[in-house]
Amino acid sequence: GATFLVSGGDTNSLHVFSTTTDAEINVINFGTHVGGNASSEDGQLVAVTLPESNQVKLLDSATHEIVHTLSVSDYPLGLAFSPDSQTLYIASRESSTLTVIDLYSSA
What we know:
Blueprint: E1 3-7, E2 13-18, E3 24-29, E4 37-39, E5 45-50, E6 55-60, E7 66-71, E8 76-81, E9 87-92, E10 97-102, H1 103-106
Antiparallel strand pairs: 1-2, 2-3, 4-5, 5-6, 6-7, 8-9, 9-10
């Protein structure tokens, strides 16, 4: 079923809720501060920022398993997928930069 995701910040977790029941159905622990998260438009991927480790984790939307780790710099927080779900945009707070990742050549 459909879900929505909530970054847990200092709890080091991403919380997954059912849109049908509003109940929490999964907690994904990353072991470090969780920043932002975004779901791809095609529903296949979830991107999660781990600002203190300068990483973005890509998760399979259905299984919530990590499928790829991207190393980025300068405290990544903001995320957005392109409308065709082929590009991921990552905003880093410390450097005020935008990293553009072609997911089909990087993931």
